[in-house]
Amino acid sequence: xxxxxxxxxxxxxxxxxPEDDMLARAxxxxxxxxxxxxxxxxxxxxxPQDIIEACVRTAGSAPxxxxxxxxxxxxxxxxxxxxxxxxxxxxxxxxxxSGRAGEEWLDALAPIGxxxxxxxxxxxxxxxxxxxxxxxxxxEGEDRKNYYIHESVGIATGxxxxxxxxxxxxxxxxxxxxxxFLNRICNRPETEKPFLILVxxxxxxxAMVPKHALxxxxxxxxxxxx
Length: 226
Ligand code: IYR
What we know:
Elements: H1 19-34, H2 49-59, E1 71-76, H3 79-100, H4 103-109, H5 120-123, E2 126-133, E3 135-136, E4 144-145, H6 149-166, E5 170-174, H7 181-185, E6 192-201, H8 219-222
Antiparallel strand pairs: 1-2, 2-6, 3-4, 5-6
The structure holds 3-iodo-tyrosine.
Residues 93, 96, 109, 112, 114, 174-176 line the site of 3-iodo-tyrosine.
């Protein structure tokens, strides 16, 4: 690999921790993240914008193809916009649940108990609408091809979910299909593809989660060490 003082700077941000500390931190982080649940009953308690901004900054620190950062986070907090998004999403979901999904898919969703009604899209204080940019570049105003767009936006979304959880916010990944309506409502160009909506806020008092969601595959099923 080529490095030179003109193009590179020394790496910072990595402490050489004792292995005991590394393990303790990894286990503590696991405990924290494993307590995350997808929440479908939200409180209307407001969440200040600066908390969402901090979480989105974490998302924006994600690695991406050629560092083009091919994402845009439209953070919708206005009651009118949330209503528009809910109405458009529910219209798609009604089609989905009344046939478009097909039997196998509906069967897979049955233990979660979802249906076409999405009241939380208005109750929750924030709908973070995430867009994937086909073109862009590393600097504002550039119009270059982006690479590994879905991988990059997926990684950024994972960091966003972790950041929200760490801040004490409940989230739900929501993917109405199709969701082209988001471009119009969020004023985003046609070159951007809606990726998903992350609902964020406080959980409602007495919120419930499906037992199905508590089933997590053991390590030996999800990993091998070669
Ligand atoms: N988007 C629909 C359906 C749905 C699909 C999957 I895959 C889920 O894990 C959950 C729901 C909905 O939000 O109801």
